[in-house]
Write the structure tokens for this entry.
Amino acid sequence: MPVTEQGPDTRLRSLAEGFAEELTETVRGVLPGAPRFHAFLSKTRFWVTPVDDARKQRPVVLTINGDPRLDLEVSFYCHWNTNRAFLAVDQSHVKLYYHGRGAQRVPLLRYEYERGWTDPPGAHVHVHAHRDELAYLLRLAERGQPQERMAKDRLPQLSEIHFPVGGHRFRPCFEDVLLMIIREFAVDKEPEWRDVIDRAIQRWRTKQLCAAVQDVPEVAADKLRKLGWTVEPPPGIVPRPRTGIPKLFLP
């Protein structure tokens, strides 16, 4: 995807490039031979993804005992948050594949986020597997999603289920996925990998906590008072009008 100079302002570009640098620092501190991430301008938002030396998208290849075994495809599409104060993820896809199956390969699982979704949930996981009982349940009802599948006259797939994972504010971060892969598959890793992941997760969850507090500042203030803090609203502050359900409460 080509980079152009038209579109978002230089501050947004700087934030997207900083996000790409953070991801590069994380994957290179955790996984041997990891690629760098790059921020491409795509219309009015930035696409952040791992690239090769020619700036073409490539997966993060995970090895076990030195042999390539898994591919991790990663894409983040970023833009301003609602009040243009910080970088927000509009959409993200983290897909885990068995290595080397060619063009016809199917993911083992997908962690996805859609900022504008509430139904299905914005943050969700897809598991590409099969279980007879679940396939049966996916066609059993005569309304909702099962009805839609029946209308299309096709077999249901477990991979169609959107498993919710914490909503817009408390969804897993990329480093949570890395941690799961390392724990469950014992992929090769750098000596200081755990410190790198712990720092990245702390950074992510601190940002999400700040975003959650911004959603419901009165709740945060009340809790701090109960903990013994003195918290007063700024002089002359006018409560922000609620135009919808805060992101904190969305699925």
Remarks:
- The chain has seven helices and eight strands.
